[in-house]
């Protein structure tokens, strides 16, 4: 499963892109409204940093407006994917944009029935919001599993798990076979943490330091390697 970052913060992308785990990013109007600076500059910079698909969302609620905004957003950078909210108008706009070769991420999909319509309209990504389903006591894993099953193994639309609130959402999405999960920086950071990892690192450091001559040996090895390059 590919990992995207869900953010409007260039600083956050800079920090986490350095880990080498990001394949793309998603933004939305709420996230961009919190960011400093011109939204176009923010989206372009995120494209450079992740060097992969970056979703930027239309805000019109009628097909013509969605298509016009989608074409304009796609013109920001070749890596932009146009995010379109699920609706009748959104389906119509998705068909037109995707027929023009502009990739669409259909967002706010909350059922397998909506996902079937989304895939049929030619969307590249079907975004199912896990956290918002769980918030209203609908099990997000069940819905996501129904979407994966309904679209089938040879699906052209990729299932994108969104609205992740904790690391287990990413694990559930991966186990269900989603192609992508997009997570906020704080969830990606929470995925790093395990007390046994921290304890293990501390123990290795302590044991190594109990033999100071080993430290000397390793520094010499590094210096020899650097000199040979
Ligand atoms: C996905 O692309 C959305 O931007 C996002 O995951 C929304 O998540 P939220 O429910 O935390 O706002």
Short description:
It contains 12 helices and 8 strands.
Commentary on this structure:
Strands 1-2-3-4-5-6-7-8 form an eight-stranded parallel barrel, surrounded by seven helices. Helix content is 55%, strand content 17%. The chain is built from twelve helices and eight strands. Strand 7, helix 9 (167-176) and strand 8 form a beta-alpha-beta unit. With 229 residues, the chain is of the alpha/beta class. The protein has helices spanning 10-17, 29-34, 39-50, 63-74, 88-99, 112-120, 130-135, 140-151, 167-176, 185-190, 195-209, 212-228, and strands at 2-6, 22-26, 54-57, 80-85, 104-109, 125-129, 158-162, 180-183. Bound molecules: erythose-4-phosphate.
Descriptive tags:
single chain, 229 residues, alpha/beta, eight-stranded parallel β-barrel, 12 helices, 17% strand, binds erythose-4-phosphate
Shape: elongated
Strand order of the largest sheet: 1-2-3-4-5-6-7-8
Main pleated-sheet profile? 8 strands, parallel, barrel
Beta-strand residue percentage: 15-25%
Enumerate the distinct ligands.
erythose-4-phosphate
> How many helical stretches?
12
Question: How many strands?
Answer: 8
Q: Fraction of residues in helices?
A: 40-55%
Radius of gyration: 21 Å
Q: What is the mean pLDDT?
A: 97
**How do the SSEs run, as a string of H and E?**
EHEHHEHEHEHEHHEHEHHH
Which structural class best describes the helix and strand composition? alpha/beta
- Give the low-pLDDT segments: none
Distance between the termini: 36 Å
């Amino acid at each position: 499963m590919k990992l995207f970052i869900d953010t409007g913060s260039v600083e956050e992308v800079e920090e986490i892109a350095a880990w080498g785990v990001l394949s793309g990013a998603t933004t939305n109007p709420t996230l961009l409204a919190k960011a400093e600076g011109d939204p176009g500059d923010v989206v372009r910079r995120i494209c450079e940093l992740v060097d992969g698909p970056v979703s930027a969302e239309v805000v019109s609620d009628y097909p013509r407006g969605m298509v016009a905004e989608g074409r304009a957003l796609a013109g920001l950078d070749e890596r932009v994917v146009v995010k379109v909210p699920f609706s009748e108008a959104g389906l119509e706009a998705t068909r037109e944009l995707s027929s023009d070769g502009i990739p669409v991420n259909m967002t706010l999909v909350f059922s397998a029935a909506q996902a079937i319509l989304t895939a049929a309209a030619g969307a590249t990504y079907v975004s199912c919001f896990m956290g918002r389903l769980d918030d209203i006591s609908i099990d997000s894993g069940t819905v996501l599993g129904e979407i994966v099953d309904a679209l089938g193994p040879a699906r052209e639309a990729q299932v994108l798990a969104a609205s992740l609130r904790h690391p287990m959402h990413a694990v559930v999405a991966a186990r269900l076979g989603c192609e992508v999960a997009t997570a906020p920086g704080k969830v990606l950071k929470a995925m790093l943490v395990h007390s046994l990892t921290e304890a293990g690192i501390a123990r290795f450091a302590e044991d190594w330091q109990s033999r100071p001559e080993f430290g000397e040996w390793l520094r010499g090895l590094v210096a020899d390697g650097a000199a040979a390059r």
